[in-house]
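step 3/5: co-fold with iron/sulfur cluster
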Amino acid sequence: MGSNDRKRASAALTALRTKRRLKLVPAGGGMMEALLLALVAQGSSLAAAERALAKIKASVVNWNELRVTQAKEVAALLAGVREAPGKAAAIHDVLSSIFEETHDLEFGFLEGASTAEAKDFLSGLGALTDEMVDEFVLAGRGHFHISADGDVVRVLRRLGVAARSDSPVKFEAALSELVSAEKAYQLMYLAKRLAEGICTAHGPKCPECPVVLTCPSAKKSKDG
Ligand code: SF4
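step 4/5: write tokens
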């Protein structure tokens, strides 16, 4: 695999993340931190959201204490981010929903789940946008698993990522060599999302695709 393959894989990830505005995945921290950051950062700058989240973390012993903290106090900690009262209420709702269902605010119950299972659980809570759910799952390498199935391989090949293999495990290993394990995970997840309604096996909807301007297969697909 040459440097061109690496460039294509990196470019595909950049295009997918930029177009979906998935820039808020924290480099470290746990799953709940990723989720809260995505929630707090909606409509605000990442820097303001990170500062607010750091204040919140410093003011509570654990996420359960945050769950039972008055929304008014949480809103005060969110000073500087947009719609602080609404976000404080959303934080309370999300923590309460997860706690009521699982009694586990560290997401231990999702350890080893597939990305689809993690997404389904959070989508079912109702208070989170698709983008927040995606950011949570994207932060979850090492916790969640995604397979390089036919959807993933099809979309990545159309995007010009030429990792070659004859099995999902080998494809993922080849992709990880091209970029990094973290980026390979993100690429596969975003490719799977794109495969669901846009980059379908037959008749991909290129005009509606968020990466149509950079996809090397776009014109060919449009022309049939
Ligand atoms: S532009 Fe078309 S072929 Fe390329 S990823 Fe999007 S839907 Fe798939």
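step 5/5: annotate
Residues 150 and 168 are 9 Å apart (CA to CA).
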